[in-house]
Design goal:
alpha/beta; seven-stranded mixed β-sheet; 9 helices; 19% strand
Amino acid sequence: MTTSDHPGPIALQRYWDDRAQRFAGVGDGLAAVCSYGMPSFYNGYIQLTQRAALRHWLRPPPGTTVLEIGCGVGRWSRQLAVAGARVTGVDLSSHMIAEAGRRAAATGVSALCEFIEGDAAQLDLGRRFDRILCVTVLQHIVHPDRMQAALDSMRRHLAPGGRLVLLEAAPSAPDHRCDSGTFIARPESCYRTAFASAGLRCLTTSGVDPLPLKSRLLPRYRALPPSVATTALFGITLVSLPFDVMLAPLMPTRSWHKVFVLTAA
């Protein structure tokens, strides 16, 4: 893929708006924000592994100010607000923002949440936050300059002593089997270089999904007969879930996705 092939912010906004219009209002909205249009059992698996990996950061002290970049339907924003945080959620898609607001109202946390349409690579809210949460957003910003700009913006919005928590596809060795026009699995080393360029220091790294079965199936998933694809995915999900939840903290180098906790350098 050349630089000219990378979708710009307008094309990405249309892509995320389409996802939101099709799936954000369905059930928990996971098909819009996890794996696009995939079976509910698989997106439920993604949600469970991500929640397990982020559990420490989803229980902030009451009054903590949190910025969620790429908030989608507000699944993490609402949980943070229930814990007493004051949350600002930003998303490129106006449809995602509308759904996040609707779900926050239904949960009774509207007073602690605000949702703003915005581009992570061009964000300027004029204030800083105790914590910033960004879950599977940078992996969808495939242009390297825009990805770096997003990290630079997060650094500017981080309060002194604050923490930036990123969960991204970041294999320990290059693995581009699942890359597409809207997704790129940058190797961990690429992220570490980008962190340093943004003036960020990585404090800890932990795993999310160390069993590599899904990354081997997903590139072939659409080409398989639907019944075969669904059955294979269900089997892989069934095997992976307990392994990933229990062993991910102990096996960060084997994980496809990783959680990086950063602070200002």
